[in-house]
Design goal:
alpha/beta; Rossmann fold; Immunoglobulin-like; 8-stranded mixed sheet; 12 helices; 15 strands; 23% strand
Length: 386
Amino acid sequence: MEKIILYTGKGGVGKTSIAAATASLLAGKGKKTLIVSTDPAHSLSDAFETHIGHSPTELGKNLWGQEISVIEAINSHWKELKLYLTGLFQSQGLDPTAAEEIATLPGFEEASHLLYLEEHIKSGNYDVIVMDSAPTGESLKLLSFPEAMSWYMEKIFPIGRTTAKVIRPLVRPFSSIPFPNDAVLGNMESLYNSLKHIRDYLADPDLTSIRLVTNPNRMSFNETKRAYTYLLLYGYNVDALIMNKVYPPESGEFFKLWISAQEDILKETQYAFPELRFFSLSISKSETLGREELEKMGKELYGDEDPLKVFTKSKPVSYEKVDGKYTVKMKLPFARKQGINLFNRKGELVVEVENWRRIFYLPQSFSDKKPVSAEFINGELNIEMV
């Protein structure tokens, strides 16, 4: 498979239309393309004016669509683990209905989306996967999940199936809590390996492009700046920004104030995101629906550019050793100095930016170092380690 293109942004900015337009354009160029919606409020079917199922649905030559069902995904990927958790909660006195409800743990939804994505990558059925993601906050949860879940798996579930076989008979007589069987432990081990694989794929700028979609209004623009910062925090490469729903100058006197305000934001964008490839799309005179109209929209958006191109490649996080001095450098362009907190926790570097936290797995040469000072210069956090 050549590429994953993931679109994210504030709700209502037009992610679904942009994603559908890109998928239609690529399919028209002969690329076997799958467009996947991870937004619980699916609207791909509306965009293509046809029903799109929970499994890949053919939408025409070279084009398939999928609207993932969380319930079906959990039953498909988590059957053994969910059965174990349901039994565990029932053993502690919960009635069966409540136990089954609670057994759907936070993170199951994000993990299920990622497991479907890994299956598509492994299948080799598609040249490109276009992801119509949920609004910004949910997308960040999705993209931060693999690393966070891997940390929990290593810390909380380090026990292997071989060890479990020895411990299970010893624990059973003294505890009413059911001990996980081989199938459950195998389920968790498979999850761990899958999440590591998909994280590596999503973080590779040659394989995955994350593109921000925004509108030329202050609320959308400010959220885009925060999203860009948090994506960099988690080590993802953002290669383009798409300004959607721009009023053209000929829109008329009624939109004069809107056009003036948009011009200010468009100018600011050039300075705020100097590293990103910038695209803009005028607001449509009517709804863009159906594959043919969506493909026209894709051509208008990208022009002569190839959507599969990596428009920007940067290192959000880098490690430097100069003259015996160890430094971790993190690009956090729109973070506030007051909103950044970092500390060492038992050999792990923890960085907090506002409401988001990342626990860093440091390279071997940095693993025994502790942060002693940090300096925030021009949107880059420089952490000295000794």
